[in-house]
Amino acid sequence: MTGWLHQQSRALAAALRRLFAQPASTLLTALAMGVAISLPSGLYLALDNLNRLAGNIPAQPEISLYLDTAIKPAQREAIATLLKRHPALESSRHVPRDAALKALGESHGLTDITAGLERNPLPDAWVVRPRETTAAALAALRSELEKLPGVEQVQLDSAWAERLQAALAIGKTLVWLLAGLFGVALIAISGNAIRALILAQRDEIEVSRLIGATDRYIRRPFLYLGALQGLLGGLAAGCVLAIAGWMLHAPVARLAGLYGSQYHLRAPTLTEIGAVLAATTLLGCLGAWLTVARSLRQVEPPR
């Protein structure tokens, strides 16, 4: 065990020496990897923030019934009784017109404007949540509620939410697609950097083989080098995302404030940061392994 640890430490030290022997090349490689991995990572964070923004969307569709402003008291009572006892409804909630106007003013910063109105233009409303959420059941229930006396308009409030969720699902698929494509690009970047080093040290590798060095012994420092390059690429991606988040924080907060919201961008968690660093490290190591395996087959010791 001690011998194995000694071999690993020597290989790691050799990789570090090769890494810092060419600081400019190391920096450029890390930046190329960082930019490649920051694109799918940034899109993932953007979709996650959109998901948080849409977090107040109800899981079940809701139907809003807007009552006629000239509705008769008897019709109002009949609607209330029907909605509370309707077997197809899971719940119902009455929204008085005064409460709706107050909520509108507070949520959109229009308190001064709504306070100056001579009369309330909003109607009384009921918000109901159906038990069945299939398209056919919702269409039938909406058609039934539209025929109630005293109901001026019926609106199904889930259509835009369903479109948003569908768009987010497409975005998630796009994230995985980009992650795969840029993962291949990261392997290629790491492999090209390792291949350049192998070509520069071709004579040294040939001499090492002459004195009995195995391919495993020759390969080990390059694997560590690829892993270190991937790790630096992951750190570079973190720096790129941090700068982008810092630049977007104030504009997003200002925009949210205009809508009376305290929304702010979410920073990546430690788990997500660790996952990105682990992925880039493994991809860098994989790129090094593929390149070294191919290059060693091409390097033959002199006869």
Describe the structure.
The chain has 303 residues and is α+β, with helices and mostly antiparallel strands. It folds into two domains: 2-56 and 162-298, no CATH class; 63-157, Alpha-Beta Plaits, CATH 3.30.70. The chain has ten helices and four strands, in the order ααβαβααβαβαααα. It has a four-stranded antiparallel β-sheet. α1 crosses α9. The chain is elongated and about 100 Å long. 21% of the residues are buried. The mean pLDDT is 78.
Keywords:
single chain, 2 domains
Topology (SSEs and partners):
Blueprint: H1 2-21, H2 23-53, E1 63-67, H3 73-85, E2 89-95, H4 97-108, H5 111-115, E3 125-130, H6 135-146, E4 151-156, H7 159-200, H8 202-210, H9 215-258, H10 270-298
Antiparallel strand pairs: 1-3, 1-4, 2-3
SS summary, helix count: 10
Main sheet: strand order: 2-3-1-4
Kindly name the structural category. Answer: alpha+beta
**Which stretches are poorly predicted, pLDDT < 50 over at least 5 residues?**
none
